[in-house]
Amino acid sequence: MGAIPNFRVTFGVKYRHETHPHWAGAHPDGWLEVLARDEAEARIILHRYVGNAYAFMYEEARFEPKWHPLGRLATITVDGVLWPKEGVEPPTPRFTPSDPQWYGVDPSDQVAARIEGIRAEHSDADAIEKLGYEVELVHKACLNGGLALFSEVHEVDSRVLAAELDWASPHHCEVCEESIT
């Protein structure tokens, strides 16, 4: 078995003067080391700790440390944080795949509309029996088409926030059939 790949993650210059939204130790003059089997796993680990709030991820061989005089700020693996730098708060897991930040989406973004009522076709008898209505999520731009799917509309929420949805469970627009999450 070969060595575990080593990735270096850098942060934008704005974090020289602003606190990083998810890790106070982030600084443009240093890097976060991520140990993972491959780049895909490294990105999953990285998103768990800092979301999409980073500048670049490099393979160790393609990284130029001379531009980052603070050096390694911490090392993270799939199992957690290793070797934090003295004086730098270690990163802590902030997000799971259920959180919109994992996907680079602000929780306050309005991402969909929710329609409650009775579908005109392909009704779900179980939902009607249990809840008294059916629910569909559609893109805000698809709201009129979504309303046309219902023979009876009980309620419409045109401002469904990203934070209201479980991002680990895919949501598809019933009108355009594209992903909402």
Question: How would you describe this protein?
Answer:
The protein is an alpha+beta fold and 181 residues long. It folds into two domains: 6-95, no CATH class; 110-164, no CATH class. It has helices at 39-50, 125-131, 143-148, and strands at residues 6-10, 30-35, 56-59, 71-77, 80-82, 110-119, 134-138, 150-161. It has a five-stranded mixed β-sheet. A three-stranded antiparallel β-sheet has the order 7-6-8. A hairpin with a 2-residue loop joins β4 and β5 (80-82). It is elongated, with a radius of gyration of 22 Å.
Relevant terms:
three-stranded antiparallel β-sheet; 8 strands; 29% strand; elongated; 3 helices; alpha+beta; five-stranded mixed β-sheet; 181 residues; 2 domains
- Termini separation comes to 37 Å
Please tally the β strands and state the result: 8
Give the helix tally. Answer: 3
Q: What is the domain total for the residues?
A: 2
Radius of gyration: 22 Å
* Main sheet properties: 5 strands, mixed
Please bin the fraction of helical residues. Answer: 10-25%
Mean pLDDT level: 89
Rough outline: elongated
Strands of the widest sheet, in order across it, are 3-1-2-4-5
Structural class determined from secondary elements:
alpha+beta
**Strand fraction:** 25-35%
Uncertain stretches: none
Structural topology:
Layout: E1 6-10, E2 30-35, H1 39-50, E3 56-59, E4 71-77, E5 80-82, E6 110-119, H2 125-131, E7 134-138, H3 143-148, E8 150-161
Parallel strand pairs: 2-4
Antiparallel strand pairs: 1-2, 1-3, 4-5, 6-7, 6-8
